[in-house]
Amino acid sequence: MPVLSEDSGLHETLALLTSQLRPDSNHKEEMGFLQDVFSEKSLGYLMKIHEKLRYYERQSPTPVLHSAVALAEDVMEELQAASVRSDERELLQLLSTPHLRAMLVVHDTVAQKNFDPVLPPLPDNIEEDFDEESVKIVRLVKNKEPLGATIRRDEHSGAVVVARIMRGGAADRSGLVHVGDELREVNGITVLHKRPDEISQILAQSQGSITLKIIPATQEEDRLRESKVFMRALFHYDPREDRAIPCQEAGLPFQRGQVLEVVSQDDPTWWQAKRVGDTNLRAGLIPSQQFQERRLSHRRAAGPLPSPQSLKKPPSGLRRSFRLGRRERPGSLQEGKASVAAESPELLTYEEVTRYQHQPSKRPRLVVLIGSLGARLHELKQKVVAENPQHFGVAVPHTTRPRRSHEKDGVEYHFVSKQAFEADIHHNKFLEHGEYKENLYGTSLEAIRAVMARNKVCLVDVEPDALRQLRTSEFKPYVIFVRPAIQEKRKMSPMSPACEDTAAPLDEEQQEMCASAAFIDQHYGHLVDAVLVKEDLQSAYSQLRVLLDKLSKDAHWVPVSWVR
């Protein structure tokens, strides 16, 4: 084997060692594994970085000066006072840029070596009755962030113990504090006879370094297991309003529709989670699905639910896709289903979701439009199809009325007999249906499948109650809630269930529109993927096209059951 000189680098040693690996029959797998590991480019790069750092460490480089910021300010003063030439003006401009000034500040910080945290000396008054191995002194450095741990009083021993470690918090990052550890002192203050809320206050008010005296748990629990469970929240949550949470400061607030990454489900009552997209690495407490369902069931049993009439359900009936005016619409055969849903609402907690990217080889997702009164969904979807009929399509409805001279079967409608229509109703072939002037109208599931089979994006507008039937892995619906803008100057927040009065009082029709939007938001908002506020047909069309483009290009969160 060749001999390396003293000047040989670590990466050269590694390369030479790799070349000498020769798998034999007895250790073929082990030698092959080592060869793969040592041949990794990333490992070679790390070795080179290591050598460079060692080289500069041996050289013991010293900064030319410790106050580059002060020098730069002096130079700028001189330049501003003197007659400025073009090159001086350029230098002055460079020295004034925030990025260069920040770099000089970093230089001075490193040169003066004042970046290390200043920790207090270890306390000498460790109680004599503790064995050296039974007590642990932990020093943590934190800023204004919470410590990331909750405590509780042990019912049997009365000791103050660590109840949970919040993933990503200061305590978790240190690796020195574990669930079950007994807490004796915080910054020299004994906590044996203090209440947990008093101790939490001391921890919250401590800045910089915190010294903890801890008796390690007899059997330290395993570190929190890595979890990659994503949940879409189906309700709003504010820990400040939750009297059951063990520590309000550790709670994680969220809004309905936000996706949460659940990092620990070890506690059956309180999960640890982060909001997807948050820059904060520390997890927070949220009620577990089981606990939240139990609370909702208890609240429901505690008092009677409001009747469907008291919920001010907006007028229901056949969709405008059946070409009926708002004031002409009769009662729908689907109205009974909606009433049942209102009387027995599901327990809205969380829905497990995953990222889904549509593949060109797969059928397009179904696009479902739901809308409050005045949304005019039929016009909107017809405009999308008219602009690009090769890519978009609509489900052709069925009807029992006679075909008119200019109409073609399968184009405007599927014209069928009343007996055939009623048979299809009996076999649950219709997504929704209704009666108008003694004629039946309906949208069948097969009509939707026919559009999707031609590899077109099918747009349907339905009563919101039909969403439950469409939310399957077959259709993977993308639900868009279209709500009309009452007036140009009247604010109508996409996430708010009601209109905000900033203009003249609403007339009766506008009040109906607001009530309709509020009802849909309250009872079906958790099923909505996007909200579109419509001021006029063109603006709504532009918004819709943006959403449709993103649907084909971007990844979206969908229920896990749709892709498994």
TrEMBL record:
> What UniProt keywords are attached to this protein's entry?
Cell junction, Membrane, Repeat, SH3 domain
Q: Low complexity bias located where?
A: 308-319
Q: What species does this protein belong to?
A: Phyllostomus discolor
The main place the protein resides is other
Which family would the database say this protein is a member of?
Belongs to the MAGUK family.
UniProt xrefs under Pfam families: Guanylate_kin (PF00625), L27 (PF02828), PDZ (PF00595), SH3_2 (PF07653)
Q: Answer yes or no on keyword Disulfide bond.
A: no
The residue ranges of the SH3 domain are: 226-296
Which InterPro entries does the record cross-reference, listed alphabetically? Answer: GK/Ca_channel_bsu (IPR008145), Guanylate_kin-like_dom (IPR008144), Guanylate_kinase_CS (IPR020590), L27_C (IPR014775), L27_dom (IPR004172), L27_dom_sf (IPR036892), MAGUK (IPR050716), MPP3_SH3 (IPR035604)
Q: Where is the PDZ domain?
A: 137-218
What Gene3D superfamilies does this protein's entry cite? 2.30.42.10, L27 domain, P-loop containing nucleotide triphosphate hydrolases, SH3 Domains
Name it.
MAGUK p55 subfamily member 3 isoform X2
GO cellular component assignments: adherens junction; membrane
Domain (L27): residue spans on this chain: 6-60, 61-118
**Subcellular localization:** Cell junction, Adherens junction; Membrane
- List, alphabetically, the SMART domains matched: GuKc (SM00072), L27 (SM00569), PDZ (SM00228), SH3 (SM00326)
- The segment(s) forming the Guanylate kinase-like domain are 364-549
Question: What residue spans carry the region label Disordered?
Answer: 292-341
For this protein, the record's PROSITE patterns field holds: GUANYLATE_KINASE_1, GUANYLATE_KINASE_2, L27, PDZ, SH3
